[in-house]
Amino acid sequence: MEETVRVRYAPSPTGFPHVGNIRTALFNWLFARHHGGKFIVRIEDTDVARTVPGSLEAILESLRWLGLDWDEGPEVGGPHGPYLQSQRLPVYQEVAERLVKEGYAYYCYCSPERLEAMRQEQVRLKLPPGYDRHCRCLTDAQRSELALQGIKPVVRFKTPLEGQTKFQDLLRGEVVFDNSTIDDFVLLKSDGYPVYHLANVVDDHLMEISHVLRAEEWLSSTPKHIMLYNALGYQPPQFAHLPSTL
Q1: pLDDT grade, residue 2 (50/70/90)?
Q2: Residue 246 predicted with pLDDT over 70
Q3: Are the CB atoms for 56 and 13 separated by under 8 Å?
């Protein structure tokens, strides 16, 4: 393997570690050590409302207890820090603004009440859940008027309406998703915090992650990440989605 292997374990402090988390960490640590690469720990702590006090300390202590030492991350530092996403907010905000400016994303002013009513109607009609793209085609004048009302928008990705998104999974081979099944997902919340998709892609790029080894539950999120990599001109890492623990 010619390139330097750089993998990451990126838990969220929304709960205490369980066997599935640790299994993912173990696979990443073993892969890094086998190839003489780097094992990075990154804490994805942008979901403030769900953060559980003491869980960050428990995450790090569980790794130490198991002997899974990390080369970069909290407590040890490194050239790509900080390694807590809550300390990297300006980076994500700048990228989100760039995506809007370049036409890959847009500001969405829909209220929580409107979104909930939309979801209820979709359930009633037995339609797939997803954003109806109400704000995707607003004119500049309409956006200005909404902004003057003091509404703080979210930033949504402008998902292609047609075609397919494909990627190679190291375990599963070629994986294909129809773009029509993917809605215009949120990148940046109205409070300035990124959602997982944006922060994950930006940090994996900036931290030079070569391989993403994660649970198969993230497989359906990967086409969104591939779209973001392409829009930003980033080279995607290699992906391997690990089977769930039974």
Answers
A1: low
A2: no
A3: yes
| Two structure tokens written together for 200 | 């994950």
Q: Report the SS3 class of residue 153.
A: coil
Query: Cα 67 from chain centroid?
Result: 27
| Per-residue pLDDT reduced to its tens digit, 230-242 | 999 999 999 999 9
Give yes or no for residue 1 having a pLDDT over 70: no
User: Pairing relation of β-strands 238-242 and 211-215?
Assistant: parallel
Amino acid at 99: L
Burial 48-59 (b: 16+ CB within 10 A, else e): eeeeeeebbeeb
231's tokens: 């829009």
pLDDT of residue 49: 87
Structure tokens at 4: 């330097």
* Residues 157/228, Cβ–Cβ less than 8 Å: yes
Number of H helices, E strands in the chain: 7, 9
Concatenate the DSSP letters of all residues of 126-149 into one string.
TPPP----TTTT--HHHHHHHHHT
| pTM value surpassing 0.90 | yes
First to last CA, the chain: 31
Other Cβ atoms closer than 10 A to 13: 22
The edge-to-edge listing of strands for the beta sheet with 211-215 is 173-178, 164-169, 238-242, 211-215
